[in-house]
Amino acid sequence: MQRVAVSNIEVSGGFGLPMGAFSERVALVYPVGGGFFRQSVKGWQWGATAHFVFGEEIKEPGFASNLLPIIAGDGSFPGIGATFQGIMTGGFVGKVLPIGRPNGNSGFALRFGLGYLSSWYALRTSGGLVPQLAAPYDKGYDRMSSGFYLSQWFGYQLMSNNQSINFYIGIEAVQGFQEHLRKFQYDVGVLPSGFRSDLWLGLKAGWFFPVYPRSKREFIEFN
Hints:
Blueprint: E1 6-19, E2 29-39, E3 44-55, E4 79-98, E5 107-126, E6 145-159, E7 166-180, E8 184-185, E9 189-190, E10 195-211, H1 214-221
Antiparallel strand pairs: 1-2, 1-10, 2-3, 3-4, 4-5, 5-6, 6-7, 7-10, 8-9
């Protein structure tokens, strides 16, 4: 299979280990989403992606502590929990560095991304309705923030000769620079002003589907 220019649709996901101050608030994050990218004959890539980000555990000391004890509207004592959630949308440029096998469209690859990141704590309760956490009061605890992010990914990309196996896998670093959207939170009072850094390092993999022009597809199949 010769080196070709091709458009691709991808689905991707992974996990990230929070770094720095972010690690004191969240245990792990999991970005899941997809996107579109174009790869040139010389291996240059550019595209756009969108991901939901989920965090498995809120670690922030004292979070929502002023709610204790929690009493539902029916007098019961429901459980309360919170998870980290976010949305990432942006674009990237990259380059595939071919290593010869199975073809010139495969090899080590680099991607550099820039985009928008919004994140918040999603509160949940089990049991009866909790008036303190019903809308719009839940916004007093959600730590919602938004800003821009940078990302760097390095790994391996495979584009098979028969078009059936096409994937990439590698290490990704993300640096989010966000500003608090809530000026006041019920459990801590006034939040710090300015930007905060949400940093994580982890693994990202994707499966992509090349969309070849008809004439190019026929050439590849018969050669």
